[in-house]
Structures are given as structure tokens and as C-alpha cells.
């Protein structure tokens, strides 16, 4: 319908232009060629509330982070930490005192100026006793927050936290001001380049350009942006084709991606996400308490076939709990490469010459179901019988697997960036306990030197690749499909987001 | 008549209270904790405890039930865990989509079913009758959401006549709103129309053999008048009953169709609330649906009294 109207108008304009051509001189581009300044972004999942500091779902950050809310630091499209509301910082020799120089002249969308007292409020709210911040654990090392003057913020730590600057860039660490914080869930107020306009629940969120945006070094081209929520992949594809949605940065169905190839109006941009698809095993339960069994299962898996069967060939195989976006990434898929014969031999060595039987609790999502089926067939090749039991995600999975650890094997895509530390958590559903691994992670926090951290992250990846606490399968691709004229959207997603700052329509 | 009404209203309220208890218990038995879903995989135990306290989930079950029920009686349906806004407002917003959608579907199904059913009855065992019979069985057998997908593929993707889903909101204009609801209403109406056609055909066939229709015909009334003036009104009772019964299916269908067409209606709210374990929203929406079904049955009974004078006499 829209298309028909547009055509009608163009031809009418065309006629008018013809009529005018006789009398007026044609100069420059015709009016309809000026770039659009509005965009509609499609998302599969509607956020639950718009305050990333009180709930975990990544969809919240995908609407608000960097658009409405900003942090002391930020994470750029290469996954690197950059200054934002903190202009610069100094870290003491012992790594326990962080002194931030805050940016001046920044105001929230409601006019409240940003200063050290606001920053202190935000951090105290996130780490306080009744905090419901989903990443509260990352603020645990902060002992005291001091504000010597309005533009200086000092964080005193109980122990060095080498990843603190990175964590401060997360959506959950966004800066919020005392007056509006309570209502951010429904009417978010931040310092970002876009202001919240309205939220038609179940349908869309509207944003408008913040004319008073502090960062004059970027020129925000969009006047308005809308996020529309469409769950069904068929409906997503239809909305893209009909032009109802300009971009679907994370399109839901890999099997439909090829169907866009013939469409010249739409561009397909395949990138990486932070979603690590891993089949976690209960490392304290027989037979998975035997490292050899886990290694054998890993060797029974041909990752390329898994990616092909589960996600139409999109996705990058991984050998550890780490993605190519992450700093210090090592390709460790060669540690236990596909080798069914060796796998059988190792199983026999562990005392399972006649194979074994277990159950995988697989969530209902397409990737989990399909991957489980591919795994089932591969494991059968080495005499392992894997039964598939579908478990409702998130509710039942969180209750049975994550909290009760009542499972043999499960499969899930871990969404949080740089979350290799989950293997050091106790309790955590893998029940994986390796003091050597924990020491490496402690060493990462003990240093603030990025090069040293990257080296240590490499070590951590290697330990996991060798111990195989989970079958490391693949990183979900970011299946971006958008109007070919839309530029500036991120190709990769080192942190779940839809940063609109640089998005614009090309001529 | 009044006594019957009062009795029916009292039983209606009692039913609702029993239903509310049932809903509350079932929702509580559902595995999954709203707080852990909201706070994700990284949440520490003390954060979870803080959120549970904030949501009032740490209180004992009977207390929570009574709190909810007394709230409902005072028109306060509570606050959504996930959206953080009053549930009453959420439901009201969604009704602006679901009610017009359901009404359109009912209207469409009547417009399709009655003429087809009546014509099929007039020419029963003829080619037209068989064709209508086949079509109605197919439309009953095919699920509404699948019809919806086909309609999207044809009218949105291929022809580009209709939006592929979504709802522009009523402030975008009545026409835009109705247009967005047309395809989903058709998807929802077709299975209903199939059932209704069968019922209308059977009912008209039955009354066509009644004495009064024969008498009318014998008096020299044309067949057309005999059918529309005498047969159809008398065939209305089973049709209205079926409409009332179908209402439940209409709501169930709306949950799926709203998801396919991405309509922000009550059905999608229920679906989302279920997967997020936004229990308070679930309770309220299910209670609302139950109340609607109970009320529908009550209204169907009332309509009987209006269209069938014999029942009115009995009641007195």
C-alpha cells in the first residue's frame, strides 16, 4: 500500500516537474531525493521495561544503550573501551583507586546536569543493599565512592578489578539521575543522543533526536527512530519486504536469509554476536565428571556440520567460551577436532566401550532444538545415545538447569559479552571446578595492563578448550538485513546493542 | 424473569471467584521464578532476594491471593512485573485492538456463513451445497494462524496491498486501523465461518420442513420470503448458540493470529507474559478471558429469551 502511494506521488511529482520544466530552471536534486531522517528498526523481542540497570534482558540495552543511556565509559564497535561521560581516568599503582575526570556541560534529557554526585548516585544504586542490578556482582569490589568536586569521581576498591572500566561501559552501568531513576522503567531519561518519546507496549518504542546532545564531535543524522517488535520470523521477512521496517539488525531465521538475495533494495550483512552456543555438561555428575568423556564427546562433534544443520551455515565455530569479537581471542577449534575414531577410543579408555546414554535438556528455541538433533546423530556415531527433552526457556530452564543444576547436558546461547568468568563461578550450572582456571581469572582482575589481560584471557580460553566443561559449538551470526541505503549500523555486536548515533540514509 | 436474572448473576460471580482461585493456584504451580527471569543468568542471590521483596513474591501464597483478589474487586489489577505499569492500563490498551478484531471476525463470519448456509440449504444435495460443504470443512480444518501466514504472503509480500502486520494505532486514523485488522480478521473469521455455515445450513434445513414454513409456502408466499421471513429467524437459535460457543475459540485463535500479525492485542500480551512469567499479568488476562466467556454464555442465554418467545413464557 505504502509502495503504491509512493509511486503515485512520484509520478505526480514527475508530471509537475515536466510542467515546470518549461518555465523554471532545474537546479540540483529534486525534492524527493533528500535523505530520510527517520528509521524503523525491527527487533524480535520486546524489552521488558526500558531500564537496563534493573533487569537483564538484552532487548532493553538494544533499545536504550548509547541511544538514551550512556555510561562513564563505553564500548565501541570493535569491543574496545572508550571514554564517554568520564573524559579520562587515572588508576593508582596498586590498582585500587580509580580517579575519573568527568565531562562537563552534560545534561540529562530532563535538564538535570550530570556531575559527580549523579555518578555516585548511579553507582551506589547499582551496588547498594537493595539493588536489583542484574550485574551487581561487577560492582562488588567497589568499597567507597568519593566526590571531591563536581567533576571528579573516585572509586576505592577492596581489590584490583582489571575489567572495571569495561564493565562500566555496559548497559547495566548506565548513568541515571536521582529524580527520574525510579521511572526509567517506563520513561527512560538519560544523557544520550536520543530522547524517549513513547512506548506503545507490544508494538514499538519511539525516540527523537536530542538537540542538546553534549557530544558535538558526532553529527547525529536521524531526527527520529522507532523500534518495532516482531517475533515471528515470517512476519519479520514480510515487514522487511513491504518496507514497514527499514532494518532488522538481528534477523531471526537463517533459513530465510537466502530468500533476500534477489532483492536489490535490501542488503544482507552477516556479522558476529556475543552469543556463544555451548552444550553445557553437569561436570559433577557421572559420566561427565570424567574429563575424558567430555573430551570424547567434543571429538564426536563436527562443528561445521552443526553450524550447517542448525543455522544454515551462518555462524563461526568456537573451541572455547570466547568469540572473535573479544580481545585476545584464540581459535581453539583444533584442540579437539572432529575425530570419531579417537573419540570412541577415548570413551573406551574411560570405561564406556559400550557407549552411554544421557538426556539433553534443550530449550524450545530453533537453534537449540536443531543443534540438539544434529548432536544426537553425531553422538550416535560413537555409540552414545542422547535423548532430547525440550525445556521451556527461560522459565523452566532457569529453574531446573541454571538454579537447580538438575541435568546431564543442556544447550543454550550465552548472551553476555566476555562472560568466560562463568566457569569460575560457584555455584554455577556447569559445576566445573578448576582452581588453575580461577587463578587465571583472578590474575586478569589483578592487572590493568590490556596486553597482559589479553595474554591471560588466552590462557583461560586454552584451559577451557582442554577441559571441555561444555561442548563449545559456535557463535551465533548477526544476520543483519536492512535497506541498502541505510548506513552506520554495526556489522558485529561486541555487546548487544543497536547504536544509532552514526546511522543515516545514503543518497 | 428478574429472579432468573438475579440467580444467574450470583452464580456468575461465584463461578468467577472459583475460577480466580484456580488461576492463581495454577500460575503459582508453573515452574519458573519471575525474579530470576528478569535478572538473567548473572544475578547474585541477594539481588534476586531484593527483587522478590520488591515484587512482593516473598509473601505466603494465601496472602498474595487475597491481596490480588481484593485488588481486583477494587478495580486494581496490580502492576506488571516486567513493564512496571498497572495491568489495568495494559489490558485496556490491548482491548483497543482485540475487541475490534474479534468483532470484525464475528461480523465477517456471519456475513460469509449465513448467506452460504441458507443457499446451501435451499439447494441441498445440489452441486452448490456440496461445494459449500467442502469449503467449510477445509476452512474448519485449517488453523487460523496458517491462513494468516498465507494471507500475509499473498497480500503483503506478493501484492503489496496490505501491511505485513503490526498496528499503526487508532490515532493513525480509523481507516489505517481497520486496514491493519482486516487480514487478521479474515484469518480468524474463516474457521468460524466454516462452522457457522454448517450450523446455519442444518438449522435452515430443519425448519424448512416445519409446518409453518409449509403453510407459508401453501399460502402462496415466495420461497425467498418463506426462507428469510420464516425459516431464518427460527433457525437463529442454534446459530446464536454456536456464535457464543465459538467465542472461546475466537479468543484462543486471537492469541495465535495476533502473534502472526504482530498485533499488540490481549492475546499477544498473554503470550508474552507467559514466557516472561509476568504472573500478575497472566492472572489478570486469564481472569479477564474467563469473565468474558462466562459473560458471553450469560448473554447468549439472554438472547435466547429475546429471540424465542416460548422460552420467555417458560421463564415467567
Describe the fold and architecture:
The complex is a heterodimer of chains A (507) and B (316). By secondary structure, chain A is of the alpha+beta class. Chain A folds into three domains: 71-183, Dipeptide-binding Protein, domain 1 (Alpha-Beta Complex); 194-272 and 478-505, Periplasmic binding protein-like II (D-Maltodextrin-Binding Protein, domain 2); 273-476, Roll (Dipeptide-binding Protein, domain 3). Chain A contains 13 helices and 20 strands. Chain A has helices at residues 2-21, 58-64, 116-127, 164-167, 178-181, 233-242, 291-299, 303-311, 340-349, 366-381, 395-403, 435-446, 450-467, and strands at residues 38-43, 73-75, 81-83, 86-91, 97-102, 142-149, 152-157, 194-200, 204-209, 224-229, 247-248, 266-280, 316-317, 356-363, 384-391, 409-410, 412-414, 470-483, 486-487, 504-505. In chain A, the strands form six sheets. In chain A, strands 11, 12, 13, 17 and 18 form a five-stranded antiparallel β-sheet that branches. In chain A, α7 (291-299) packs antiparallel against α9, α8 (303-311) runs antiparallel to α10 (366-381) and α12 runs antiparallel to α13. Chain B is mostly helical and 316 residues long. Chain B has two domains: 2-73, no CATH class; 94-315, MetI-like (MetI-like fold). Chain B is built from 13 helices and no strands. The mean pLDDT of chain B is 85. Classes of the chains: A alpha+beta (507), B mainly alpha (316). At the A-B interface, α1, α6 and α11 of A face α2, α3, α5, α7 and α11 of B.
Amino acid at each position: 500500500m505504502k509502495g503504491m502511494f509512493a509511486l503515485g506521488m512520484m509520478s505526480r511529482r514527475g508530471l509537475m516537474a515536466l510542467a515546470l520544466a518549461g518555465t523554471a530552471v532545474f537546479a540540483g536534486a529534486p525534492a524527493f531525493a533528500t535523505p530520510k531522517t527517520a528509521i524503523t528498526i525491527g527487533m524480535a523481542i520486546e524489552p521488558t521495561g526500558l531500564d537496563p540497570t534493573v533487569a537483564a534482558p538484552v532487548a532493553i540495552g538494544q533499545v536504550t544503550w548509547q541511544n538514551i543511556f550512556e555510561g562513564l565509559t563505553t564500548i565501541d564497535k570493535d569491543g574496545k573501551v572508550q571514554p564517554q561521560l568520564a573524559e579520562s581516568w587515572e588508576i593508582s599503582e596498586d590498582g585500587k583507586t580509580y580517579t575519573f575526570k568527568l565531562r562537563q556541560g552534560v545534561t540529562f534529557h530532563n535538564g538535570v546536569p550530570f556531575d559527580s554526585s549523579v555518578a555516585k548516585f548511579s553507582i551506589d544504586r547499582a551496588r547498594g543493599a537493595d539493588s536489583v542490578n542484574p550485574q551487581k556482582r561487577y560492582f562488588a569490589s567497589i568499597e567507597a565512592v568519593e566526590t571531591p568536586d563536581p567533576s571528579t569521581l573516585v572509586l576505592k576498591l577492596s581489590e584490583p578489578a582489571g575489567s572495571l572500566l569495561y564493565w562500566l561501559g555496559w548497559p547495566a552501568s548506565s548513568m541515571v539521575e536521582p529524580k527520574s531513576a525510579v521511572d526509567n522503567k517506563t520513561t527512560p531519561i538519560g544523557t544520550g543522543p536520543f530522547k524517549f518519546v513513547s512506548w506503545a507496549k507490544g508494538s514499538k518504542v519511539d525516540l527523537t533526536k536530542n538537540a542538546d546532545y553534549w557530544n558535538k564531535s558526532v553529527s547525529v543524522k536521524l531526527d527520529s527512530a522507532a523500534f518495532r517488535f516482531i517475533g515471528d520470523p515470517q512476519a519479520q521477512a514480510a515487514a522487511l519486504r513491504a518496507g514497514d521496517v527499514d532494518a532488522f539488525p538481528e534477523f531471526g531465521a537463517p533459513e530465510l536469509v537466502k530468500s533476500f538475495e534477489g532483492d536489490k533494495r535490501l542488503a544482507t550483512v552477516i556479522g558476529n554476536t556475543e552469543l556463544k552456543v555451548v552444550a553445557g555438561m553437569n561436570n559433577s555428575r557421572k559420566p561427565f565428571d570424567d574429563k575424558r568423556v567430555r573430551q570424547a564427546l567434543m571429538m564426536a562433534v563436527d562443528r561445521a556440520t552443526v553450524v550447517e544443520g542448525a543455522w544454515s551455515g551462518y555462524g563461526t565455530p568456537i573451541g572455547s567460551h570466547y568469540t572473535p569479537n573479544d580481545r585476545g581471542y584464540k581459535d581453539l577449534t583444533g584442540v579437539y577436532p572432529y575425530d570419531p575414531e579417537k573419540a570412541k577410543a577415548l570413551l573406551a579408555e574411560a570405561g564406556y566401550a559400550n557407549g552411554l546414554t544421557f538426556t539433553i535438556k534443550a530449550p524450545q528455541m530453533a537453534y537449540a532444538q536443531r543443534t540438539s538433533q544434529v548432536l544426537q546423530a553425531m553422538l550416535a556415531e560413537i555409540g552414545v545415545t542422547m535423548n532430547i527433552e525440550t525445556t521451556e526457556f527461560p522459565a523452566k530452564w532457569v529453574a531446573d538447569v541454571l538454579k537447580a543444576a538438575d541435568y546431564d547436558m543442556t544447550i543454550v546461547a550465552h548472551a553476555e559479552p566476555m562472560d568466560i568468568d562463568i566457569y569460575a563461578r560457584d555455584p554455577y550450572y556447569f559445576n566445573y571446578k578448576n582452581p588453575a582456571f580461577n587463578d587465571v581469572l583472578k590474575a586478569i582482575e589483578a592487572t590493568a595492563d590490556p596486553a597482559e589481560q589479553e595474554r591471560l584471557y588466552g590462557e583461560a580460553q586454552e584451559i577451557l578448550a582442554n577441559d571441555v566443561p561444555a561442548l563449545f559449538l559456535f557463535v551465533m551470526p548477526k544476520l543483519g538485513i536492512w535497506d541498502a541505503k541505510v548506513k552506520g549500523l554495526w556489522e558485529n555486536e561486541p555487546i548487544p546493542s543497536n547504536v544509532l548515533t552514526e546511522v543515516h540514509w545514503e543518497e | 424473569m428478574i429472579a432468573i436474572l438475579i440467580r444467574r448473576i450470583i452464580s456468575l460471580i461465584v463461578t468467577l471467584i472459583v475460577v480466580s482461585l484456580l488461576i492463581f493456584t495454577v500460575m503459582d504451580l508453573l515452574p519458573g521464578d519471575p525474579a530470576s527471569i528478569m535478572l538473567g543468568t548473572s544475578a547474585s542471590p541477594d539481588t534476586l532476594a531484593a527483587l522478590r521483596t520488591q515484587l512482593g513474591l516473598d509473601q505466603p501464597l494465601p496472602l498474595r491471593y487475597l491481596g490480588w483478589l481484593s485488588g481486583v474487586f477494587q478495580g486494581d489489577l496490580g502492576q506488571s512485573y516486567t513493564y512496571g505499569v498497572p495491568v489495568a492500563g495494559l489490558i485496556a490498551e490491548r482491548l483497543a485492538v482485540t475487541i475490534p478484531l474479534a468483532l470484525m471476525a464475528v461480523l465477517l463470519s456471519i456475513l460469509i456463513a449465513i448467506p452460504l448456509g441458507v443457499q446451501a440449504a435451499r439447494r441441498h444435495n445440489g452441486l452448490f451445497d456440496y461445494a459449500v460443504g467442502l469449503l467449510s470443512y477445509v476452512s474448519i480444518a485449517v488453523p487460523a494462524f496458517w491462513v494468516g501466514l498465507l494471507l500475509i504472503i499473498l497480500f503483503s509480500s506478493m501484492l503489496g496491498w496490505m501491511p505485513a502486520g503490526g498496528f499503526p494505532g487508532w490515532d493513525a486514523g480509523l481507516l489505517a486501523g481497520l486496514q491493519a485488522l482486516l487480514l487478521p480478521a479474515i484469518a480468524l473469521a474463516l474457521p468460524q465461518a466454516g462452522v457457522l455455515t454448517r450450523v446455519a445450513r442444518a438449522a435452515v434445513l430443519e425448519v424448512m420442513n416445519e409446518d409453518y414454513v409449509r403453510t407459508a409456502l401453501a399460502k402462496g408466499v415466495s420461497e425467498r420470503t418463506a426462507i428469510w421471513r420464516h425459516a431464518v429467524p427460527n433457525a437463529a437459535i442454534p446459530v446464536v448458540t454456536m456464535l457464543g460457543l465459538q467465542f472461546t475459540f475466537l479468543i484462543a485463535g486471537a492469541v495465535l493470529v495476533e502473534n502472526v500479525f504482530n498485533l499488540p492485542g490481549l492475546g499477544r500480551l498473554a503470550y508474552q507474559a507467559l514466557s516472561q512469567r509476568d504472573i500478575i499479568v497472566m492472572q489478570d488476562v486469564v481472569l479477564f478471558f474467563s469473565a468474558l466467556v462466562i459473560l458471553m454464555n450469560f448473554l447468549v442465554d439472554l438472547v435466547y429469551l429475546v429471540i424465542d418467545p416460548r422460552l420467555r413464557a417458560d421463564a415467567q
